[in-house]
Specification:
There is one protein chain. The chain starts with 5 loop residues before the first strand and ends in a 5-residue tail after the last strand. Strands 4-3-1-2-9-10 form a 6-stranded parallel β-sheet, sandwiched between helices. By secondary structure, it is an alpha/beta fold. The chain is globular. Helices cover about 40% and strands about 15% of the residues.
Length: about 270
């Protein structure tokens, strides 16, 4: 495809950058937008109805000014509940993010695997169905953590990683010697994968869906009729002002090429 597609990534925080990074590596030619609902961060503590309402509202608001060709819900928690509503609202491809349970079950030698996700994700019936379908022959540990999301959020905003807090969150798995595979079931977690690896040295494989999502986006774009071919600036949207905006944007402009940060007013 010679023309640029306008692709929106959505998360409650910055975890979706781990997915964006993989898509950008595979498809550097397109026009990228990133939206995070920092007013409602973290989603894992919110009701399903509120998550659906906010996700649809943010995507519709951006689409009014920047016609979208594809949306990536770069959040496992949101993806477990919002995809049907988005597909009713938009007639463009919607790509969700789900825990990579199938590849983890396939690669594990001990068949003892861990799902590290948010509190919202680990309790969803959808996840239980994935485990039943793809990992019925495995022992699956589930650990839901909001603290790890906050640690990853702080890291990408320039703060150092609190390894003591990280170890405390993961302590329940420290002595499970045959736990050889861990699914990073929140898009924030690949951003602190190296630090998680230090805390769980017995784990041989850390699995996240980033590359699979990138390949899915590439496949879907082959049959998309583009709505807008003129956008050139990669933009970031948030839902409320925050203290370190300038520092945040300097880091993201240098690292991933985003030009401006726009604060959305969903009430307009």
């Amino acid at each position: 495809m010679a023309d640029k597609a306008t692709i929106l990534f959505f998360d409650s925080g910055v975890g979706g950058f781990s997915v964006y990074r993989e898509v950008l590596d595979l498809l550097p030619q397109h026009h990228y937008l990133y939206a995070f609902d920092n007013e409602m961060f973290p989603f894992s503590e919110k009701t399903e109805d509120l998550i659906i309402q906010r996700t649809v509202a943010v995507c519709k608001k951006i689409n009014e000014t920047y016609p979208l060709d594809l949306i990536v819900i770069a959040c496992n928690t949101a993806s477990t509940v919002v995809l049907p509503a988005l597909r009713e609202t938009f007639d463009i491809p919607i790509v969700g993010t789900v825990p990579a349970i199938k590849p983890a079950a396939q690669i594990s030698e001990t068949k003892h695997i861990g799902l590290l996700a948010t509190k919202g994700t680990v309790k969803r019936p959808y996840v239980d169905k994935l485990i039943e379908q793809y990992a019925s022959g495995c022992q699956v540990e589930k650990l839901g953590s909001t603290k790890l999301v906050e640690i990853a959020q702080d890291k990408i905003q320039g703060d150092s990683v609190d390894l003591i807090a990280l170890r405390d969150e993961l302590a329940v798995w420290k002595n499970i010697e045959d736990l050889d595979t861990v699914i990073l079931g929140c898009t924030h977690f690949p951003l602190i994968k190296d630090e998680i690896r230090i805390c769980l040295p017995q784990v041989q494989h850390f699995i996240d869906p980033g590359l699979a999502i990138a390949k899915r986006v590439a496949f879907l774009l082959e049959n998309v009729k583009l709505r807008s071919k003129n956008e050139v600036e990669n933009l970031i949207f948030c839902t409320k002002q925050f203290e370190i905006q300038n520092k945040f944007m300097q880091a993201l402009k240098h690292r991933w090429g985003f030009e401006r940060l726009i604060v959305l007013n969903l009430d307009e």
